[in-house]
Amino acid sequence: MENECPSGKYGTNCTADCHCNQNGSAENCSFFGYCHCLDGYWGDRCEKNCSSECRLRKCHQITGMCRCEDFKYGRNCDKNCTCDPRVYSGCSRSGGCLCKTNPDNATLNNTSCPDNMFCKENRNCVCKGWKYGSRCDQESTCNRNNTISPFSTGGCRCKLGYYGRNCEFECRTDCINSYWHNKCKGDGECWCLDGYYGLKCENKCNCASNEQCDEAGTCSPRLTRIA
User: What pLDDT, on a 0 to 100 scale, did the predictor assign at position 223?
Assistant: First the structure.
């Protein structure tokens, strides 16, 4: 969901402060407070510099690993991929071949994936239908009405408003001060806005301006914004 709050704010009422490194992140954080790192930076707050060994100083926002161009791989993107460019779109960090999708990023069956798999937008071959496993020979137990799709390990990617091992439970609908009124955590509890806690996010934290509270209302030091 797009953050339409003023710069430096996020949340349903735009009352929560972003805590991103101003030098290494985009002007504003996401609706949930996540930072969007600029090229050359990584970390929760985009406070870390990508390695100087990374080509074009680009790295993964979470891991800090170098982001390689197509048909390059290795820790510093210094190895050439041997995958056939007529069949594959590039190679993974370890040198494995990545399948091709068609120009509009829709899924596409092609010779780079086995018959029981198709090429996903992330250029990885995934199982068709509700199958999973390395050979796509296992049937998912996900509730199909409440699930977007199964993960490759058999876990379920739940639709908005559901949770549980098989997406069999409905989220609470009586959350008050939460990011979503029909989206919950993995245990079904409300996802409270910054500054609130409680079963329904009904309690306001009583913390100092430089503190934040946990799910029990206990205050702890807040991470400071890097200037």
Answer: 61
Q: Are strands 9-10 and 196-197 parallel, antiparallel or unpaired?
A: unpaired
Phi, psi of 97 (to 5 degrees): -80, 140
List the one residue out of 21, 23, 64 whose CA is nearest residue 223: 21
With beta carbons less than 8 A apart as the criterion, state whether 7 and 15 touch: no
Q: Which residues pair with 9 in a beta bridge?
A: 17
Q: Could you identify the residue written with the tokens 């596409």? A: 108
User: Using the 8-state DSSP alphabet, how is residue 59 labeled?
Assistant: B
Residue 133, CA distances (Å) to 43, 126, 155, 175, 190 in order: 32, 9, 11, 37, 32
The pLDDT tens digits for 29-58 are: 888 888 889 989 999 889 999 888 777 778
* pTM beyond 0.70, yes or no: no
Quote the tokens at residue 131: 């199958």
Pairing mode of beta strands 169-170, 16-17: unpaired
How many Cα atoms within 13 Å fall on the side-chain side of residue 73? Answer: 15
Rounded to whole angstroms, how far apart are CA atoms 68 and 76? 8
Q: What is the pLDDT of residues 83-139, one digit of tens each?
A: 888 778 888 878 888 887 654 444 444 557 778 888 877 677 888 889 888 788 899
The conformation of residue 37, written as its DSSP 8-state character, comes to B
Please name the amino acid found at residue 18.
C
Residue 88 sits at φ, ψ, to 5 deg, of: -115, 160
Give, in degrees to the nearest 5, the angle at Cα 19 between 14 and 20.
115
Half-sphere exposure of 179 (CA within 13 A, CB side): 20
